[in-house]
């Protein structure tokens, strides 16, 4: 059951098409010979030694890409641009939350990364060792990641908003020898302690032994910190004094680059492992074509945190490999006020802006008068990632932020896929609001039923499972320390066919456009009809009073599941209680079908979100079914439930 109304597609302008990085020939080349195509993409990078084979899939489901090839990831992201004569180009326009800022050129970045690499070597770290990075969005965080990459160390970035318990879990799982952190971090004008959280993590559980030998601390807010002699060192007393000369050594294409724990929307975090050559190839390729990035001309801004995969692939590795000039912003979008992002866009002339639907909906809630008070004419391309974007939010984004002309790329991918898999190509695809449209050249996906049969194009009832039926260069190589869980989670469901099960539902519309419907656990069964939470949420957000909506299927004696909706109203909306609720129910009924009409609608002040900004439907289902709440450790603010339950 899908109720997406027929809608126009937005084709890119002739002007955009004429200058676009990607044309139709890209897909033609990929179709002609997929592996040769990936070989060509890998040639975007500098290889110290060439590979002998593009893909070795004999050890499936663990792939080896660019077999025998040797490269250095940091050399590709930094040194090579300096050697090519672009040392004076700004790599990072860094914008601190309190209003301080810093421009870092590629030459300066090279010096910083080299110093960190020299210091890491001095304290005895060698290729293969793990390093935990628990830092806010400051240049040293990116420098640390690149210094690890330079030495073949495997970094594990832990989002600095996570608790000491979450940090400890991740440090222990990866057996990190070094933790890099800051004294404190700025949050809405206040300094929140961070080093203290590291100490709490490392002394947790009555100080059971752990792997950490060193804690390296960057001074950021000046807050006082607890200190352990012999273990703790200041960055400004160590790294800052190290030599800025360092020669990058080549590593095997399959050298582990990082471990990143998924946010845990669906349970215990998994340490997703990514390696070097294939990962950098696909992040570089996608950043170049999906964002139509022009080095030396564009000013790019991805608003993610480096604690998420989006920060890894589309702040650090993809963009820097393509010689980006990018904005990195430390703070929240409303520090000191709701104009912050648009002030930054104006200040640096941002031309490519990549964010998440949750933020677009927040901007909508704050009102269009805020972005409209700014000159956003530099923006020529917009991106979205993290959740399905509601058509209403998509249109608002295009009109208010994109000046009715910037193409929107709705990019579907996962921590596990490492890089974008499904997305429009901005100079090629005519986009539909809310659709991720289709696979990128070189990527192959299918939408299938339980038994692996293709679902029928355009069939109204045909919501299916999204699977990836061919290996791709930036695919995960496993779950850290748990090969069995890797197989069970992703490869067991379609073991016979050898397909990767993404855990998301999707469908093709009449025109063959691909719509991602969110995770399969979020597809409801109402009297035998499969309805996705995303569709009902989009219908609710389509009402002029609603800013955000979360929908879950709760057990229902008559219909199997009944739809329970939680909505947040816009700042400007009037809460007329039952009258409004009836209106909203009628809206869903009209725009999808009477079957999709919510059984209950609750107007709430906030929705429970993970720290990466996604709605935690699993917990709302617990509320709707009157159960004890499950694990809330990755929630931003567990207190929202008191408000929700009290209604
Ligand atoms: P966990 O796996 O721990 O539950 P997570 O899946 O939220 O957490 P990520 O890897 O960051 O962690 O997110 C990937 C998921 O986000 C996808 O599987 C999909 O459900 C959703 N997603 C990402 N981009 C899009 C998009 N453009 N459209 C629809 N859904 C998207
Ligand atoms: Mg996931």
From TrEMBL:
Transmembrane segments: none annotated. Keywords: Acetylation, ATP-binding, Ligase, Magnesium, Metal-binding, Nucleotide-binding. Residues 535-614 form the AMP-binding enzyme C-terminal domain. InterPro entries: Ac_CoA_lig, ACAS_N, AMP-bd_C, AMP-bd_C_sf, AMP-binding_CS, AMP-dep_synth/lig_dom, ANL_N_sf. Residues 25-77 form the Acetyl-coenzyme A synthetase N-terminal domain. Its cofactor is Mg(2+). GO terms for molecular function: acetate-CoA ligase activity. It catalyses: acetate + ATP + CoA = acetyl-CoA + AMP + diphosphate. This is Acetyl-coenzyme A synthetase. ATP binds at residues 386-388, 410-415, 504, 519, 530. Residues 83-480 form the AMP-dependent synthetase/ligase domain. The keyword Magnesium applies. Its EC number is 6.2.1.1. Catalyzes the conversion of acetate into acetyl-CoA (AcCoA), an essential intermediate at the junction of anabolic and catabolic pathways. AcsA undergoes a two-step reaction. In the first half reaction, AcsA combines acetate with ATP to form acetyl-adenylate (AcAMP) intermediate. In the second half reaction, it can then transfer the acetyl group from AcAMP to the sulfhydryl group of CoA, forming the product AcCoA. PANTHER family: ACETYL-COENZYME A SYNTHETASE, ACETYL-COENZYME A SYNTHETASE 1. Acetylated. Deacetylation by the SIR2-homolog deacetylase activates the enzyme. It is an enzyme of class 6 (ligase).
